[in-house]
Amino acid sequence: MISLKSVVHSYKDTKPISFKDWQINNGEQWLLLGESGSGKTTLLHILTGILKPKQGEVNINQTSIYSLSSKNLDQFRGRNIGIIFQRPHLIKSLTIAENLLLVQSFAKLPEDHKRIDEVLNSLDIIHKKDAYPSTLSQGQLQRVSIARAVINKPALLIADEPTSSLDDKNATAVLELLMEQSGLNQATLIVATHDKRVKDAFTHTYSLA
Ligand SMILES: Nc1ncnc2c1ncn2[C@@H]1O[C@H](COP(=O)(O)OP(=O)(O)OP(=O)(O)O)[C@@H](O)[C@H]1O
Q1: What was the ipTM of the complex prediction?
Q2: Lowest mean pLDDT among 1-5, 54-58, 181-185
Q3: Could you give the domains of the chain?
Q4: pLDDT tens across 68-86, in order?
Q5: Pocket residues: Cβ below 6 A from ligand 1
Q6: Annotated Gene Ontology MF terms (predicted)?
Q7: Contacts of 127 (CB under 8 A, 6+ apart)
Q8: How far, in Å, from the CA of 33 to the mean position of ligand 1?
Q9: What beta strand segments (E) does the chain contain?
Q10: Which residue, judged by its Cα, is nearest atom 7 of ligand 1?
Q11: How confident is the model at residue 152 (pLDDT cuts 50, 70, 90)?
């Protein structure tokens, strides 16, 4: 279970943003909606342990994440949280498989080539395993981003505007893959977007004012 309690954040010289309390049960799929500037990215950073809020508490499966030391928080994030950004941030000098091996090693998990093949197969991108990111299409790169996010079977999968740079066909495919991949591991899925094409796929919505 993930919970957000009495969370408020303010950046230097800006007015504080209050986030209403939020409770998410394991395996639920949520849409995070909000106008530009309403605080979606801020909230995702708070939920993923990147940004400590000025006030309030964030719990992920009974762990109050901001009570962890920074070393333990890094490891917790690597093992429990997968993040998909609007654009894939892959390391250009490494192959797709090597990029995925790096994610296992950051989380201090053993190299697991079988798991890499399994994930790349399920995302229909195994043929690009030994290719470099610059040789992949935008849609293929987004599938690799999903592979990277799910490789360690995280309990929480978070996507920040995952479809906004894709055409209709790829946007639908990426959304279906996100739902399918989170379902495979019973992971909780949170997708932040203002892409109207994806709204209907979700039953739960958290809206920022
Ligand atoms: N590092 C920062 N320093 C100061 N103010 C910031 C910083 N990051 C965000 N803000 C401000 O906080 C508010 C929320 O920003 P945030 O990026 O979370 O919004 P958003 O909903 O993700 O917007 P968008 O949909 O346009 O990406 C905005 O007013 C923004 O200007």
Answers
A1: 0.96
A2: 181-185
A3: 2-207 (3.40.50.300)
A4: 999 999 989 988 999 988 7
A5: 11, 14, 34, 36-42
A6: ATP binding; ATP hydrolysis activity; transmembrane transporter activity
A7: none
A8: 14
A9: 2-9, 17-19, 22-24, 29-33, 55-60, 63-64, 81-84, 156-160, 188-192, 204-207
A10: 11
A11: very high
